[in-house]
Amino acid sequence: MERWLVMSNCQTVGLANCLQAQAPDIVITPLDPGQFKARPWRVKLRMGSFDRLLIYPAIRQEVPKARLDRISTHVELPIITFRGYHPDLIYIFNRAKPLSGPISHYHSAIVFACYLQGISASDTLAYFNGHFFERCGYFDVWSGERDRLVAEFEAAGLNIRPYFRDWGRTTAFMYSYNHPRIQPLYDMASALLECQDLPTYRSDLIPHDNLANSAIFAVYPEIGESVGVHGRYEFRSAGNYRTIGLEEYIGRCFALYATLQVSDLEPFHEFRKQVEDIRALL
Protein backbone atom coordinates (compact mmCIF):
# COMPACT_ATOMS: atom_id res chain seq x y z
CA MET A 1 0.00 0.00 0.00
CA GLU A 2 1.45 3.36 -1.08
CA ARG A 3 1.90 6.22 1.37
CA TRP A 4 1.43 9.82 0.22
CA LEU A 5 2.33 13.03 2.03
CA VAL A 6 0.30 16.18 1.31
CA MET A 7 1.90 19.57 2.03
CA SER A 8 0.04 22.76 1.20
CA ASN A 9 -1.40 25.80 2.94
CA CYS A 10 -4.56 25.93 5.07
CA GLN A 11 -6.20 23.60 2.54
CA THR A 12 -3.85 20.72 3.45
CA VAL A 13 -6.06 18.80 5.86
CA GLY A 14 -9.23 19.12 3.80
CA LEU A 15 -7.49 18.02 0.61
CA ALA A 16 -5.76 15.09 2.31
CA ASN A 17 -9.05 13.92 3.82
CA CYS A 18 -10.75 14.16 0.43
CA LEU A 19 -7.97 12.15 -1.20
CA GLN A 20 -8.21 9.52 1.52
CA ALA A 21 -11.99 9.27 1.08
CA GLN A 22 -11.55 8.52 -2.64
CA ALA A 23 -8.39 6.41 -2.53
CA PRO A 24 -8.85 3.68 0.11
CA ASP A 25 -5.82 1.75 -1.16
CA ILE A 26 -3.44 4.63 -0.40
CA VAL A 27 -2.49 5.99 3.03
CA ILE A 28 -2.70 9.79 2.91
CA THR A 29 -0.98 11.97 5.51
CA PRO A 30 -1.43 15.77 5.75
CA LEU A 31 1.42 17.99 6.92
CA ASP A 32 1.31 21.78 6.97
CA PRO A 33 4.37 23.96 7.70
CA GLY A 34 3.21 24.64 11.24
CA GLN A 35 3.17 20.95 12.09
CA PHE A 36 6.66 20.51 10.69
CA LYS A 37 8.07 23.47 12.61
CA ALA A 38 6.52 22.17 15.85
CA ARG A 39 8.35 18.81 15.64
CA PRO A 40 10.86 18.92 12.79
CA TRP A 41 13.04 16.08 14.02
CA ARG A 42 10.14 13.65 14.26
CA VAL A 43 8.80 14.57 10.81
CA LYS A 44 12.23 14.25 9.15
CA LEU A 45 12.57 10.73 10.48
CA ARG A 46 9.34 9.77 8.68
CA MET A 47 10.13 11.32 5.30
CA GLY A 48 11.68 8.16 3.91
CA SER A 49 8.49 6.20 4.58
CA PHE A 50 6.46 8.08 1.94
CA ASP A 51 6.24 7.04 -1.71
CA ARG A 52 4.85 10.27 -3.09
CA LEU A 53 4.87 13.94 -2.07
CA LEU A 54 2.03 16.21 -3.17
CA ILE A 55 3.22 19.75 -2.48
CA TYR A 56 2.25 23.34 -3.16
CA PRO A 57 5.58 24.76 -4.46
CA ALA A 58 5.58 27.87 -2.24
CA ILE A 59 5.69 25.61 0.84
CA ARG A 60 9.23 24.43 0.05
CA GLN A 61 10.81 27.70 1.16
CA GLU A 62 8.95 27.48 4.49
CA VAL A 63 10.44 24.07 5.30
CA PRO A 64 13.99 24.13 3.89
CA LYS A 65 15.18 21.47 6.35
CA ALA A 66 12.36 19.01 5.81
CA ARG A 67 14.48 16.52 3.81
CA LEU A 68 11.83 16.25 1.11
CA ASP A 69 14.48 14.66 -1.10
CA ARG A 70 13.91 11.40 0.78
CA ILE A 71 10.59 11.05 -1.07
CA SER A 72 11.18 9.72 -4.58
CA THR A 73 8.16 11.12 -6.44
CA HIS A 74 7.03 14.74 -6.21
CA VAL A 75 3.73 16.13 -7.58
CA GLU A 76 3.18 19.89 -7.60
CA LEU A 77 -0.16 21.09 -6.24
CA PRO A 78 -2.08 24.22 -7.13
CA ILE A 79 -4.31 25.80 -4.48
CA ILE A 80 -7.86 27.09 -4.73
CA THR A 81 -8.01 30.87 -4.54
CA PHE A 82 -10.96 32.86 -5.89
CA ARG A 83 -11.97 36.51 -5.43
CA GLY A 84 -15.29 36.32 -7.28
CA TYR A 85 -17.30 36.37 -4.05
CA HIS A 86 -14.95 38.63 -2.08
CA PRO A 87 -13.51 41.30 -4.41
CA ASP A 88 -13.29 43.76 -1.51
CA LEU A 89 -11.09 41.48 0.63
CA ILE A 90 -7.47 42.60 0.95
CA TYR A 91 -4.43 42.05 3.17
CA ILE A 92 -2.58 44.87 4.95
CA PHE A 93 0.95 45.14 6.29
CA ASN A 94 1.70 46.82 9.60
CA ARG A 95 5.43 47.46 9.82
CA ALA A 96 5.99 44.89 7.07
CA LYS A 97 4.03 42.18 8.93
CA PRO A 98 0.50 40.97 8.06
CA LEU A 99 -2.03 42.87 10.15
CA SER A 100 -4.60 40.81 12.02
CA GLY A 101 -7.98 42.50 12.38
CA PRO A 102 -11.52 41.65 13.51
CA ILE A 103 -11.64 38.79 10.97
CA SER A 104 -8.14 37.32 10.98
CA HIS A 105 -5.97 38.97 8.30
CA TYR A 106 -8.99 39.83 6.15
CA HIS A 107 -9.58 43.55 5.60
CA SER A 108 -11.94 45.55 3.42
CA ALA A 109 -10.44 47.73 0.70
CA ILE A 110 -13.37 50.15 0.97
CA VAL A 111 -13.10 50.41 4.75
CA PHE A 112 -9.35 50.94 4.63
CA ALA A 113 -9.60 53.50 1.83
CA CYS A 114 -12.27 55.44 3.73
CA TYR A 115 -10.13 55.43 6.86
CA LEU A 116 -7.14 56.78 4.93
CA GLN A 117 -9.33 59.52 3.45
CA GLY A 118 -10.49 60.62 6.88
CA ILE A 119 -14.08 59.49 6.37
CA SER A 120 -15.85 58.46 9.58
CA ALA A 121 -16.92 54.91 10.33
CA SER A 122 -20.59 55.88 10.20
CA ASP A 123 -20.20 57.58 6.81
CA THR A 124 -18.19 54.62 5.49
CA LEU A 125 -21.28 52.46 5.86
CA ALA A 126 -22.98 54.40 3.06
CA TYR A 127 -20.41 53.23 0.50
CA PHE A 128 -21.55 49.63 0.80
CA ASN A 129 -24.08 49.58 -2.02
CA GLY A 130 -24.37 48.20 -5.51
CA HIS A 131 -23.71 51.52 -7.24
CA PHE A 132 -20.38 52.02 -5.50
CA PHE A 133 -19.40 48.37 -5.96
CA GLU A 134 -20.00 48.82 -9.68
CA ARG A 135 -17.73 51.88 -9.74
CA CYS A 136 -15.07 49.78 -7.95
CA GLY A 137 -15.34 47.12 -10.66
CA TYR A 138 -16.46 44.44 -8.24
CA PHE A 139 -19.12 43.03 -10.56
CA ASP A 140 -16.49 42.37 -13.24
CA VAL A 141 -14.23 40.12 -11.17
CA TRP A 142 -16.01 36.77 -11.46
CA SER A 143 -15.24 35.71 -15.05
CA GLY A 144 -11.58 36.65 -14.86
CA GLU A 145 -11.16 34.75 -11.60
CA ARG A 146 -12.85 31.68 -13.06
CA ASP A 147 -10.56 31.69 -16.10
CA ARG A 148 -7.45 32.23 -13.96
CA LEU A 149 -8.30 29.41 -11.56
CA VAL A 150 -9.07 26.93 -14.33
CA ALA A 151 -5.87 27.88 -16.17
CA GLU A 152 -3.72 27.47 -13.05
CA PHE A 153 -5.09 23.98 -12.52
CA GLU A 154 -4.64 23.09 -16.18
CA ALA A 155 -1.00 24.20 -15.93
CA ALA A 156 -0.62 21.61 -13.17
CA GLY A 157 -2.27 18.95 -15.33
CA LEU A 158 -5.61 19.06 -13.50
CA ASN A 159 -8.96 19.50 -15.24
CA ILE A 160 -11.50 21.13 -12.93
CA ARG A 161 -13.74 22.54 -15.68
CA PRO A 162 -16.47 19.90 -15.30
CA TYR A 163 -16.46 20.34 -11.54
CA PHE A 164 -16.39 24.14 -11.54
CA ARG A 165 -19.74 24.26 -13.34
CA ASP A 166 -21.40 22.76 -10.26
CA TRP A 167 -19.65 24.94 -7.71
CA GLY A 168 -21.70 27.85 -6.46
CA ARG A 169 -25.00 26.74 -7.95
CA THR A 170 -26.76 27.12 -4.61
CA THR A 171 -24.25 28.89 -2.36
CA ALA A 172 -20.82 30.53 -2.46
CA PHE A 173 -18.11 27.88 -2.73
CA MET A 174 -15.56 30.04 -0.90
CA TYR A 175 -15.51 31.25 2.71
CA SER A 176 -12.90 33.84 1.78
CA TYR A 177 -10.33 34.49 -0.95
CA ASN A 178 -8.25 31.42 -0.04
CA HIS A 179 -10.60 29.22 2.01
CA PRO A 180 -12.81 26.97 -0.14
CA ARG A 181 -15.67 24.86 1.09
CA ILE A 182 -15.06 21.13 1.20
CA GLN A 183 -16.78 20.29 -2.13
CA PRO A 184 -14.18 22.05 -4.33
CA LEU A 185 -11.42 20.27 -2.39
CA TYR A 186 -13.22 16.97 -2.88
CA ASP A 187 -13.39 17.62 -6.62
CA MET A 188 -9.75 18.74 -6.65
CA ALA A 189 -8.85 15.40 -5.07
CA SER A 190 -10.71 13.61 -7.87
CA ALA A 191 -8.82 15.62 -10.48
CA LEU A 192 -5.51 14.79 -8.78
CA LEU A 193 -6.22 11.07 -8.79
CA GLU A 194 -7.34 11.21 -12.42
CA CYS A 195 -4.11 13.02 -13.31
CA GLN A 196 -2.17 10.18 -11.67
CA ASP A 197 -4.18 7.62 -13.71
CA LEU A 198 -5.75 6.25 -10.55
CA PRO A 199 -9.40 5.35 -9.97
CA THR A 200 -11.61 7.64 -7.87
CA TYR A 201 -14.18 6.23 -5.48
CA ARG A 202 -16.61 9.14 -5.18
CA SER A 203 -19.64 9.07 -2.92
CA ASP A 204 -21.82 11.43 -0.93
CA LEU A 205 -19.80 10.61 2.19
CA ILE A 206 -17.49 13.58 1.84
CA PRO A 207 -15.16 14.58 4.71
CA HIS A 208 -15.86 17.14 7.40
CA ASP A 209 -15.51 20.75 6.24
CA ASN A 210 -12.70 21.81 8.58
CA LEU A 211 -12.42 25.32 7.10
CA ALA A 212 -16.02 26.04 8.13
CA ASN A 213 -14.58 26.90 11.54
CA SER A 214 -12.03 29.30 10.09
CA ALA A 215 -12.36 33.05 9.52
CA ILE A 216 -15.25 33.82 7.17
CA PHE A 217 -15.55 37.03 5.16
CA ALA A 218 -18.99 38.23 4.15
CA VAL A 219 -20.40 37.73 0.67
CA TYR A 220 -21.96 41.15 0.19
CA PRO A 221 -25.64 40.79 -0.83
CA GLU A 222 -25.18 42.90 -3.95
CA ILE A 223 -22.19 40.78 -5.03
CA GLY A 224 -24.00 37.54 -4.25
CA GLU A 225 -27.05 38.56 -6.27
CA SER A 226 -24.87 39.32 -9.29
CA VAL A 227 -23.41 35.77 -9.29
CA GLY A 228 -26.56 33.86 -8.33
CA VAL A 229 -26.07 33.17 -4.61
CA HIS A 230 -27.55 34.62 -1.44
CA GLY A 231 -25.19 37.04 0.29
CA ARG A 232 -25.40 38.74 3.66
CA TYR A 233 -23.24 41.10 5.65
CA GLU A 234 -22.06 38.52 8.14
CA PHE A 235 -18.43 38.22 9.20
CA ARG A 236 -17.04 35.58 11.52
CA SER A 237 -13.70 35.14 13.25
CA ALA A 238 -11.96 31.78 13.45
CA GLY A 239 -13.32 29.37 16.05
CA ASN A 240 -16.24 31.64 16.86
CA TYR A 241 -19.79 30.99 15.70
CA ARG A 242 -20.95 34.51 16.64
CA THR A 243 -21.22 36.58 13.49
CA ILE A 244 -20.83 40.35 13.37
CA GLY A 245 -22.60 42.69 10.99
CA LEU A 246 -21.19 45.31 8.66
CA GLU A 247 -21.53 48.23 11.06
CA GLU A 248 -19.70 46.39 13.84
CA TYR A 249 -17.04 45.16 11.43
CA ILE A 250 -16.35 48.70 10.19
CA GLY A 251 -16.27 50.07 13.72
CA ARG A 252 -13.80 47.46 14.91
CA CYS A 253 -11.55 48.02 11.88
CA PHE A 254 -11.51 51.78 12.50
CA ALA A 255 -10.77 51.24 16.18
CA LEU A 256 -7.83 49.00 15.28
CA TYR A 257 -6.39 51.35 12.66
CA ALA A 258 -6.63 54.26 15.12
CA THR A 259 -4.19 52.50 17.44
CA LEU A 260 -1.56 52.28 14.71
CA GLN A 261 0.60 54.70 12.77
CA VAL A 262 -0.91 55.30 9.33
CA SER A 263 2.59 55.44 7.86
CA ASP A 264 3.14 51.84 9.03
CA LEU A 265 0.05 50.55 7.20
CA GLU A 266 0.29 49.43 3.60
CA PRO A 267 -1.79 47.02 1.50
CA PHE A 268 -0.03 43.96 0.11
CA HIS A 269 1.51 44.74 -3.26
CA GLU A 270 -1.28 43.12 -5.27
CA PHE A 271 -3.92 45.27 -3.52
CA ARG A 272 -2.22 48.68 -3.54
CA LYS A 273 -3.70 49.85 -6.83
CA GLN A 274 -7.16 48.71 -5.75
CA VAL A 275 -7.02 50.81 -2.58
CA GLU A 276 -5.65 53.84 -4.45
CA ASP A 277 -8.38 53.55 -7.10
CA ILE A 278 -11.08 53.42 -4.42
CA ARG A 279 -9.60 56.44 -2.66
CA ALA A 280 -9.87 58.34 -5.95
CA LEU A 281 -13.58 57.48 -6.11
CA LEU A 282 -14.39 58.73 -2.61
Would you give an account of this structure?
With 282 residues, the protein is α/β, with parallel strands linked by helices. Among the domains are: 77 residues, Rossmann fold; 120 residues. 38% of the residues lie in helices and 12% in strands. It has twelve helices and eleven strands. Strands 2-1-3-4 form a four-stranded parallel beta sheet, with helices on one face. A three-stranded antiparallel beta sheet has the order 7-6-11. A hairpin with a 6-residue loop joins β9 and β10. The longest helix has 15 residues. It starts with a strand and ends with a helix.
Strand order of the largest sheet: 2-1-3-4
Ranges with pLDDT <50 over ≥5 residues? none
The profile of the biggest β sheet is:
4 strands, parallel
Strand content: 5-15%
Fraction of residues in H or I helices: 25-40%
Pfam families: WcbI (PF18588)
Domain Polysaccharide biosynthesis enzyme WcbI: 4-198
Protein name: Polysaccharide biosynthesis enzyme WcbI domain-containing protein
Fold blueprint:
Layout: E1 2-7, H1 12-22, E2 26-30, H2 33-38, H3 40-46, E3 52-55, E4 73-76, E5 89-90, E6 92-94, E7 97-98, E8 107-108, H4 109-116, H5 121-124, H6 130-136, H7 141-155, H8 161-164, H9 182-195, H10 221-226, E9 235-236, E10 243-244, H11 246-258, E11 265-267, H12 269-281
Parallel strand pairs: 1-2, 1-3, 3-4
Antiparallel strand pairs: 5-8, 6-7, 6-11, 9-10
Protein name: Polysaccharide biosynthesis enzyme WcbI domain-containing protein
Organism: Sphingomonas populi
InterPro entries: WcbI (IPR041307)
